[in-house]
Design goal:
Blueprint (H helix, E strand, L loop, with lengths): L8 E7 L10 E3 L2 E8 L3 E6 L4 E14 L6 E14 L2 E4 L8 E7 L2 E11 L2 E8 L4 E6 L14 E6 L2 E7 L5 E5 L4 H16 L8
Antiparallel strand pairs: 1-2, 1-14, 2-3, 3-5, 4-5, 5-6, 6-7, 6-8, 8-9, 9-10, 10-11, 11-12, 12-13, 13-14
Length: about 210
Amino acid sequence: MPETFPAVSDRYPVSGRSPRWHGQSIRFGPYSALEMREGDRFGWAIPLGAPQLEGLSQRWSYTQIALHQAPVQSQCRARTRTLRHDGFEADLNRLGDPLLACGFRADGETILGLQLARRGDRLEGQIDSRDGDYLIRSLHGLQGTPIPSGSPTGYEILRNGRAVMVVDRVNAGSVAFDAHLAAERRVELAAVATALLLFDPGFGED
């Protein structure tokens, strides 16, 4: 857990992520992502004269639910874009192009927008919310060793410099909330947690 995460928290193990079957619901604690629709990965290439633009994309959509809370309709897209010319290549995701983008709606209006991009060997981004923005940072620690993982082991979601949710991707995974987080904020961030659990942080690097 990051140092900024409060000592008092609610942590829930995840089911439906690992092992994973296509279209399976993701569940943790009182939160469920239903009506899961997962698209296949789609690669493409567009010649631009001598240069060529190549990419890979995948889409997801689902409905995040919790008792006594409005359902959150969620749509996400992962996309890579690479420009190649005469042996030179530029990874546009490392130049600020979002690797993951999501939109979330409840009660017929947009409530959250998420963007996640590569920053060196890390993933960072933000969530635009009706009541203020959040930051997302990948975590690379592993319990029992000071040596960081090259691939993200999880994510922390911060508000005003303090972590309010932690998503653990190790093995089956878990999601932890600040115990003082309001119920309506939790279901919104639960939809974000599902997106981060579904997303492969090594997307497009194979």
